[in-house]
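Contributing new records

If you add data, match the layout below exactly. Sequence lines come first and carry their own label; structure lines follow with theirs. Keep one chain per record. Anything else will be rejected by the validation script.
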Amino acid sequence: MSDTKRAAGKKTQNWNQIALIAMAALVLVAAVYMFMEWQSARPGTPASDIRIEVSSAGETREIEPYTVCELDEECTGGTPPTMSLDSDEVTFKVPDEIAALSWRMLLIYDDPAANNEVVFTSGEAAQYNADAVTDTGARLVVGEVSALGVDVDDAGEEIPVIATWSVGFE
């Protein structure tokens, strides 16, 4: 076989390898794109299924939503669950589904002057430690976490809601 035919065969083999590598890269990029599209389009956890953790006096409890209301609707909840009040602090932990969004911590004390509200922006915090008793002697009565979320209506459609998790202290 002549050197010209060998060189031509080698060039063809090189082009075949380049085409194969280009096809593999294209398939990889398409797979990554499809995964990212699926991940962004998949439904989130409905707000009514999300739980927060509250720790006080050596006890940790998972708290379900007190209310889940469609935007611009008033809704009433029942009686929030109660826990014993620690003499030092109460810890509120929110899951990633809430921490990734803006959320609000409302603390209601037996002295209205001590009431406090803290708003967290997306990704800022996943936990808040509240004083059980303030420097002025006010005792924590209720702690509430609120966040904008998504829930599912009776027809199975996703709807925006405001969810509130509430716990009372004794």
